Amino acid sequence: YLGYRPGEFLEITKDQVKSEVINGETVYYIIEGIKTNAGRDRRVVVPKQILPIILERLETKGTEYLFPMYCYRIHTTEFIGFKKMSTRYYNESVFKPLMEKLGIKDRVPYSARHSYADKLKHAAGDDRDKAALIGHTTLDFTRKQYMSSPLEDLKAVTDSIE
Length: 162
Fold this sequence. Notes:
Blueprint: H1 6-11, E1 17-22, E2 25-32, E3 42-45, H2 51-58, E4 69-72, E5 79-83, H3 87-102, H4 111-122, H5 127-134, H6 139-145, H7 151-159
Antiparallel strand pairs: 1-2, 2-3, 4-5
């Protein structure tokens, strides 16, 4: 629901989560992004579907990171603090076990970015804004690199051929 690359996601610090009141509603967004000029320091609005998670993470004491690694003393359950989660640890110890638990196969952490792009394809709004959310200069690039076409969309196209 944020469209970040895994490395960007793990870099997010609490001070990068901002809020503004727009038309009487508090809108939360994250300023992050590191790979390209278009993606660097982009504003990504936190969708309502995950806002409670983000707000809860902001309340976690003892870490600057929004999604830190919890550290325990070896061979005990004694919590000793937080540190920045490495991409390797995230891939092997968080993402893969979660996918296995959910029964999802053949997915890599980058799949979440592709899923976000697919959600953007079906979302209302200007293509330029959609490209900005994912950190690209044009949605055309996003379409070529990230957006897949569901079978029902492909069928709708072929059904419309006269």
